[in-house]
Amino acid sequence: MQKASAKLQEIVRGVVEPMGYELVGVEYLSGYQGGNLLRVYIDQEEGINVDDCAAVSHQLSGVLDVEDPLPGQYSLEVSSPGLDRPIFDAEQFERYVGRKVNIKLDPSIGGRRKYKGLLLGLEDDHILVEVDGEVYPLYLDQIQEARLVPEF
């Protein structure tokens, strides 16, 4: 997961939020399946459907064409965060304390990149994750990808 630049996030936020949606996060993936992909995750209390994604995509495409914040060609994808919701920032980590998470780090810590466990909380610039009874402090700036583990 590559978080988009602050400028790009603000452009997207300026379209998504006035339409009544929550901006969950923005990813920009270069070299994705032979091209570039701008992925935007939106949500709202009632959930997201295809019409919501289409409406945001239509509005956002126009603004991105005018602002032109990305070099070259790219595909735009607007999506619901889904059951395995991505987590992008400290505020979102705080929201999901007590839930199970999957974390991928870059670089690894002690040879380990993947952690699946209970999100215990935040302290300064790291999160605390309990995996098999052991608590690991993981620095926010080393988290490559974080997602909730779906609970049924």
Explain the overall architecture.
The protein has 152 residues and is α+β, with helices and mostly antiparallel strands. Helix content is 23%, strand content 43%. The chain contains three helices and eight strands. The chain has helices spanning 6-16, 50-67, 90-95; strands at residues 22-32, 35-43, 75-79, 100-109, 112-123, 126-131, 134-139, 143-148. The protein has a five-stranded antiparallel sheet. It has a three-stranded mixed sheet with strand order 1-2-3. Helix 1 crosses helix 2 (50-67). The model has no long low-confidence stretch (mean pLDDT 93).
Beta content: 35-45%
Order of helices and strands: HEEHEHEEEEE
> C-alpha Rg, in Å?
16 Å
What's the tally of helices? Answer: 3
Shape, principal axes of CA atoms: globular
Taking pLDDT < 50 over at least 5 consecutive residues as the criterion, the unreliable ranges are none
The residue-averaged pLDDT reads: 93
- Major sheet summary line: 5 strands, antiparallel
Oligomeric state = single chain
Between the first and last Cα atoms, what is the distance in angstroms? 25 Å
The number of strands is 8
Measured as a percent range, the helix fraction is 10-25%
